[in-house]
Amino acid sequence: MRAAAPPPGSAARITCGDVAVAVFDVDGDLVAFDDRCLHKGGSLSRGYVRDGTVTCAEHWWRYNLRTGERVGSPRLCLRRYPLERDGDAIRVAIPKTPVGPFDA
After folding, report:
1. Measuring CA to CA, which residue among 10, 1, 92 is closest to residue 46?
2. Residue 99: how many CB atoms within 10 A of its CB?
3. How far is 66 from 49, CA to CA, in rounded Å?
4. Structural domain boundaries in the chain
5. Do residues 23 and 12 touch, judged by C-beta distance below 8 A?
6. What mean pLDDT do residues 2-16 have?
7. Backbone phi and psi for residue 10, each to the nearest 5 degrees, phi listed first
8. How far is it, in rounded angstroms, from Cα 11 to Cα 66?
9. From the centroid of its chain, how far is CA 23?
10. Contact, 92 vs 81, CB < 8 A?
């Protein structure tokens, strides 16, 4: 899927079929994760981005945006998707079959 890149320090939500992806700009580096908090499924793209983390707006779970790990519980990890820049846009690769959090 292809979409506009988010501004620095923020997030963008993009969807492809049933898959929602949150794309974050972390100090100029783009990362893409499931747009679903592991706690209750809240949208992470609507969360608060600060200091390399995103905080879910629903129940305050925090994730490291470099690793996808939940802050304080590194065994809980968001699914990451590969992406690439294409001019002012980005392309996110959504696999046809589910992948684990460390497959991307």
Report:
1. 10
2. 15
3. 12
4. 2-92
5. yes
6. 80
7. -140, -175
8. 14
9. 5
10. yes
Higher pLDDT, 36 or 5: 36
29-84 pLDDT tens trace: 899 999 999 999 999 999 999 999 999 999 999 999 999 999 999 999 999 999 88
| pLDDT category of residue 1 using cuts at 50, 70 and 90 | low
Of residues 6 and 72, which shows the higher confidence score?
Answer: 72
99-to-36, 48, 73 alpha-carbon distances in Å: 15, 26, 20
Beta-ladder partners of 35: none
Q: Looking at residue 104, what is its pLDDT?
A: 43
Q: Which helix (H) or strand (E) holds 21?
A: strand 19-26
Q: In Å, how far from its chain's centre is CA 92?
A: 11
**Superfamily of domain covering 2-92:** Rieske [2Fe-2S] iron-sulphur domain (2.102.10.10)
Residue type, 34: D
Is residue 2 pLDDT above 90, yes or no?
no
